[in-house]
Amino acid sequence: MTSNDDATTGLLDRLAAYREHLTRLDTREIEHYTHLSGQLAELTDLATSISRLQREHATTLAQLTSPSQTGAEHNGYNPSTPPAWWKRSSS
User: What's the predicted TM-score (pTM) here?
Assistant: First the structure.
């Protein structure tokens, strides 16, 4: 019976070692998942910010280039025509 007990003890030791190994693997995978989830949240926030900024720029650009905004009440960028080069005073 001694050899049978030794075999059983050996198998139980191996099972305990496998359990410890699996526990370490589970812990490592949980850490990886947590880290990747945080990175995914950061990327999602960044994509949302970029999308919002793009919409704001598109709206502003549409306001600046709208042909209906002419005349004195126009508040956008409206540069004056520069003087002809032959009419400029020499400095």
Answer: 0.51
